[in-house]
Amino acid sequence: MPMYDYECPTCGDFTEMRPMAESSLPQPCPWCETPSRRVIRMAPAFSTLSAATRTAHSTNERSADRPKLLSEVGPVHKHGPGCGCGGGGGKKERSVLRTADGAKGFPTARPWMISH
C-alpha cells in the first residue's frame, strides 16, 4: 500500500498509508482530526518493499544515466604482464616444432591453414 503526503492547515505535513483508490480523498490529521488535502512533495513510496530493495531502486534510478568510469569497465586483473599469478597478464608462448630443414610448425594451430 503506498504512502501519501497530506497537509494539515494547522499542524503541517504528515504521511499516511492509504489505498490508491482513496489517495485523492481528504485524510483526517492524526493530531487534530482536521480533514487535510493531499500534497505531492515526492513520489509515493510503497511500504511493501524491503529497505534493501528500496535502496537498490533509488541507487539504480540515480545512476541510470551516469557514464561508467574506466576503473569500472577496465580489466579486473591489475598485475603487470608476466606476474605469474595466472591472471592472463602476459602472452602465452606458442609451442613451435622445427623440421630438419629449419621450417617452423605450430602443432596447436589449425592444420588446414598454410603458414608462411
Question: Could you give a quick summary of the protein structure above?
Answer:
By secondary structure, this protein is α+β, with helices and mostly antiparallel strands. It has a domain at 3-38. The chain has 2 helices and 7 strands.
How would you summarize the topology of this molecule?
Elements: E1 2-8, E2 12-17, E3 27-28, E4 35-39, E5 45-46, H1 51-63, H2 70-73, E6 97-98, E7 104-105
Antiparallel strand pairs: 1-2, 1-4, 1-5, 3-4, 6-7
Architecture overview:
- This protein is of the alpha+beta class and 116 residues long.
- Strand 6 and strand 7 form a beta hairpin.
- It has a domain at 3-38.
- It is 15% helix and 22% strand.
- The strands form 2 sheets. Strands 1, 2, 3, 4 and 5 form a 5-stranded antiparallel β-sheet that branches. A two-stranded antiparallel ribbon has the order 6-7.
- Residues 59-69 have a biased composition (Basic and acidic residues).
Helical amount among residues, as a percent range?
10-25%
Tell me the Rg in angstroms. Answer: 33 Å
Morphology call: rod-shaped
Largest beta-sheet details: 5 strands, antiparallel
Structural class: alpha+beta
Number of strands: 7
* Total helical elements: 2
The assembly state of the depicted protein chains is: single chain
Overall mean pLDDT: 75
Unreliable stretches: none
**Approximately what portion of the residues adopt beta-strand conformation?**
15-25%
Element-level helix/strand string: EEEEEHHEE
End-to-end span in angstroms? 72 Å
